[in-house]
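# step 3/5: fold
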Amino acid sequence: MNTLTWIFIIALCISAALRGWLAGRQIRHVRRKRIRVPDAFVGDIELAAHQKAADYTVSKTRFSLLGLALDLALALFWTLGGGLALLDAFWRQADLNLLNTGVLVIGSFALVNAAIELPLGAYSTFGIEARYGFNRTRVKTYLLDILKLLLLAVILGVPLLYAVLWLMQRSGRLWWLYVWALWLGFSLLITWAYPVIIAPLFNKFSPLTDASLKQRIESLLTRCDFASRGVFVMDGSTRSAHGNAYFTGFGRNKRIVFFDTLMDKLAAEEIEAVLAHELGHFRLKHVIQRLAVTAIMSLAGLTILGWLAASAWFYHGLGVPQASAYMALLLFTLLAPPFLFLLEPLSSAWSRQHEFEADAYASRQTNAATLIRALVKLYRDNATTLTPDPLHSACHDSHPPALSRIARLQELAGTVHRTP
């Protein structure tokens, strides 16, 4: 074993240990706080709903430990356990060129991982989500979704993979720069196409028909100087009872989407406030900022991979005897996660700051008290815990904890909230 082997093992163990420790903190903290509704929510959320949210959070966090153990086992199996070496040797026997061999190896790797992780996904949907009354997905729908994802991976992923491997093999020492440009263009294309081509494969999107609500929303869009291709209602209730809203796409393909479950739970002015929050992300350039950071991070990652791919010790240290472009890609996807975990708290903090800023923007466009009412309903109906462990939340949560978010909005509203 070379130095990289030990670095990889230590990084995996530290990352897994930290994630497990944080999960344990979350479980213990939420359990302790389940016996009493926080003062800020007394009168708005009943004890039974608070306890359901606590139990739901504990169940999901416990389940995440199983996924954590599986990820650790797979990382070790594919690398030091010789899994990638065996897979590579198997396909090399077919005596194909390196380009076809690489696509088959990476495709096989992805299929094996997906098959191994499939039972966990099924239990999450038909076990945990069903137990707490959220799952509405039929088995037929679940299987069709898997088939559609597989077909999309073939139609979109295979040509991209061929292009990436070809560039790695044929474009010289700066291949990583060309691959980055290709990946960036592909990502923008998918973002542009998602609302009108990909998303409709999985859900039905109907134009908003409520005339008064539509007028209210169009007035908000005008105030926010936001042009979209329409406001749509998605049949989210076919898969889940959770409610949500979002806007997606860019350029002429921007769309505003409400889950039908959200429409059933919120009043018109509350829907407007939630939308104003989402528009805040757009107006405050959060989406562009995230795209820019993603582009920079991917360029940094490919730069590092360009250096590692030219080093024999990179392959030998991770259990692969024969160097190749496709093995460099696979090894990097297994090597990077334990190191990227160190950046997760920074990413989460940045995301939470964006949420606070979008809340402030929504308060200027609508009303902070109205947004509070909407959020309280969503916390209650989506069984979002009101009392996450502070350290776990700081490391993992992209949204601020309920208590701090409501407190910030109360300051903006200038009043103490009470749901009418």
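# step 4/5: annotate
The longest strand covers residues 255-259.
# step 5/5: archive (pending)
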